[in-house]
Structures are given as C-alpha cells and as structure tokens.
Design brief:
By secondary structure, the protein is mainly α. It has helices at about 1-20, 35-60. The longest helix has 28 residues, at about 35-60.
C-alpha cells in the first residue's frame, strides 16, 4: 500500500512541477512526506500508549 501511495505522490509531484513551477527546482516538499509523517505519528501514539499502560499498570498494583 505504501508503494502505491508513494508512486501516486511522485506522479502528482511531477504534474504539479510541470504546471505550477516548471523552472523552480526544489519548490515542493519531498515526495510522499504526508505518509511518512502519518506513519511517524502512528508509531509515536503506539509508543505513548504502551508507556501509559506500563505506568498505569505499575501504579494500580
């Protein structure tokens, strides 16, 4: 699934670069950055949930 999203992001980026800023290099963010941020937030929330469960579990004992 992530590969397909990255490919779609690359295509969209190419289209935008050709239509919006054809001569400006580096005017757009890195390809597929939204998915990378989404995944990082997922990992962070999982880690915080684990830490919260461990702290809550120790206090409840």
């Amino acid at each position: 699934m992530l590969r397909k999203d990255k490919k779609n992001a690359e295509i969209a980026q190419l289209v935008e670069q050709r239509t919006e800023n054809p001569r400006v290099r580096g005017s757009n963010p890195r390809l597929g950055i939204a998915k990378t941020i989404e995944f990082a937030l997922y990992l962070l929330s999982s880690l915080l949930g684990f830490v919260n469960a461990r702290i809550g579990g120790e206090n409840a004992s």
